[in-house]
Amino acid sequence: MMSDARWKVSLLFAIVTISIFFSIYLNSDGILEGIGNQKGARMGANASNSSVLNIAQIPDLINKLETGDNETKLDAASKLGKLGKPAASALIEKIETNNSSSERVNSYVLLALLETRDDRAENILSENLEKNLTSNNTTVGSISEIQTGREMSEDILQAMEAKDIEVRKRLADSIDREYGNKTDALEEALKSEEQNSSIYTSIAFSELEPQEPGNETEKLFKALRSENGYTRIAAIMALGERKEQAAVEPLTNTILKDYPLPKNSAIIALGEIGDERAIEILLKQMQSDSEYTRSLVAISLGKIGTERSLPNLISRLRDTSGGVRSNSALSLGKIGNNTAVEPLILMLESGKISNGKAKDITNSNSDVRKSVALALGELGGTNASEALTGLLKSKEEKNNVRVAAASALGEIGAPGTVETLKGVINDNSTDNRVKKKALTALGKTKNQEVVGILVGKLGNREFGATAREALMYMGESAVYPLLENLKTTDKRVKNEIALILIEIGDPKAVKPLILAYQ
After folding, report:
1. pLDDT score for 53
2. How far is CA 499 from CA 105, 290, 381, 491, 496, in A?
3. What distance in Å separates the CA atoms of residue 379 and residue 345, rounded to the nearest whole number?
4. Distance of alpha carbon 148 from alpha carbon 45, whole angstroms
5. pTM score
6. Is 357 strand, coil or helix?
């Protein structure tokens, strides 16, 4: 009986199990569909959240266009491009409100707008390229006006500014030894790279009564009669920075009658004023026993820029002091008379090291040779070009001298310069600093044939920034070759070329840029 009962229970259990199995099988499509719907709903929600998250990143990405390095900015531009219309609207708003921190940043914003492929990009790009072109032309005009009709190279201007800072610091150190803590403010003002006449003026006025009659110039003349030497120095420097023409005679009297510190300050100030009436007194000071005073005079004569100084400055190329020779060379370059070319070349020849020796050890000094190279670049001519080519190719020369020679060759742009510079760039043994300046010099030649060389360096982390600057310097002469290179499949290089074209600002680039990013 028990066995029969068990059998019946087992049979019943089997029937129930089979029924449940078939029920599940018959409803499996519905279950799976339900699971699929739930999964799809979750994926849709995630996609929607991802889209919102990306759009929320737009302000941060635009901020990176301003604050990042070049790599970060290019990456941000690419990401903004992928966000399409919402990013385009934000970028256009930034451009139209003109709240970019600089024109360079604005170029990255325009690149990002190009990447979005938004229909509004063409008009916005066209308007901004015209602005860039106008701005570039205005800048060139301003430089020419500042440089009294003859455009000077940036390198020689920087070299002369470095000399200015150097001599002011020496003056500050002398004042400190003379007066100690009393003159801290004056010393700080002298050592500052950016000179500010108002600081010198406030120091000069410190001894005057608040209600002292007269305008500021009249008060500065009163301060010139102060019993305190440092007050007189402050007044002298203020008059110089103000380029006060009426101060030439009082400053001449200071040179004749005062002690060395105000006297040297007056020499500096007369150079800043730039009045030719100061030439005679400055030439007399070139006979000083003080190397420092002679150096100051050489700098000031260059600033005044008259050819009356030529014989004296050329004679000072044989001064006992390397500093005086260096400053005289730079001033001769600034004045720009070719009479100085041969004496400058002779300096290079006599300073060459041969068998461990030089005919003139002072002319072997790298600062002297650098200054001579920069001066020859300003003066130009076949002889100057040949001398500079020799400097650049020589492995015996210091790198700072070869850098100066590369820059100077670019300024002259003589036949054969491009091949010389290419040879230096392709020489693996050449220091990278020299190569960078050679790339810059290629841009100065404005020869369309060099565009391919410079574009080839855009993707290089070491030389990319230098190549970019060189191409921008070329301006309109680089536009057509750059447009040809827009066809590259290298996204990074393509973006770099687009940036350069945007900054040059030639309207001819608008249509090709739009097509390149469609």
Report:
1. 53
2. 10, 52, 35, 12, 5
3. 12
4. 68
5. 0.83
6. strand
354, β-bridge pairs: 357
- pLDDT single digits (tens) 394-413: 999 999 999 999 999 999 99
Would you identify the CATH topology of the domain 339-445? Leucine-rich Repeat Variant (1.25.10)
Would you state the pLDDT for residue 141? 41
Question: Alpha-carbon distance 417 to 406, whole Å?
Answer: 9
Start-end of H helices in 277-393: 279-285, 291-304, 310-315, 322-335, 341-350, 366-379, 382-393
> Which range among 136-140, 446-450, 471-475, 511-515 shows the weakest confidence by mean pLDDT?
136-140
pLDDT tens for 335-355 read 999 999 999 999 999 999 988
Q: Are 379 and 333 in contact (CB under 8 A)?
A: yes
Instruction: Count the Cβ atoms, other than its own, within 10 Å of residue 498.
Output: 24
Q: Residue 268 to residues 16, 64, 202, 263, 291: CA-CA distances in angstroms? A: 112, 44, 19, 9, 15
Crossing angle for the helix pair 464-474 and 432-445, to the nearest 10 degrees = 20
* Distance of alpha carbon 283 from alpha carbon 260, whole angstroms: 17
pLDDT at site 98: 72
Give the 3-state secondary structure of residue 354: strand
Neighbours of 30 (CB within 10 A): 9
The domain segmentation of the chain, as residue ranges, is 1-45, 152-304, 339-445
**Cβ pair 106, 73 in contact under 8 A:** no
Equal CATH topology for 152-304 and 339-445: yes
Lowest pLDDT segment from 101-105, 136-140, 477-481: 136-140
Residue 139 in this model has a pLDDT that exceeds 50: no
The CATH superfamily assigned to 152-304 is Leucine-rich Repeat Variant (1.25.10.10)
Q: What residue has token string 């028990």?
A: 2
Is 30 a residue whose pLDDT tops 90? no
Backbone angles phi, psi at 357, to 5 degrees: -135, 160
Tokens representing residue 464 in the block:
């990319």
CA dist 35 and 28 (Å) reads 10
> Dihedral of the CA atoms 123, 127, 133, 137 (nearest 10)?
160
**pLDDT, position 133:** 66
8 A C-beta contact, residue 133 and residue 505? yes
DSSP assignment, residue 339? G
- How many Å apart are CA 373 and CA 333, to the nearest integer? 9
Question: With contact defined as beta carbons under 8 Å apart, do 235 and 220 qualify?
Answer: yes
Q: How far apart are CA 239 and CA 278, in angstroms?
A: 14
Average pLDDT, the chain: 88
Upper half-sphere CA count for residue 113 (Cβ side, 13 Å) = 29
Tokens of residue 258, six digits: 């005062």
Distances from the Cα of 379 to the Cα of 143, 201, 268, 302, 341, angstroms: 19, 38, 25, 14, 7
Calculate what percentage of the chain has a pLDDT beyond 70: 85
Amino acid 151: pLDDT: 78
Q: What is the largest CA-CA distance in the chain?
A: 144
- Residue 363 contacts residue 356 (beta carbons within 8 Å): no
| Residues facing 357 on adjacent strands | 354
